[in-house]
Amino acid sequence: MKDQSSRPLAVFDLDGTLADTAHRQRFLERSPRDWAGFFAAASEDPPLAEGVALVLSSARECEVVYLTGRPERCRRATVEWLAGHGLPEGRIWMRRNDDRRPARRTKLEILRRLARDREVRVLVDDDEFVCEEAERAGFTVVRARWAAASAALKDAQEREGRT
Question: Which candidate, 30, 38, 154, 161, has a CA 20 to 30 Å from the CA of 99?
Answer without folding.
Answer: 30
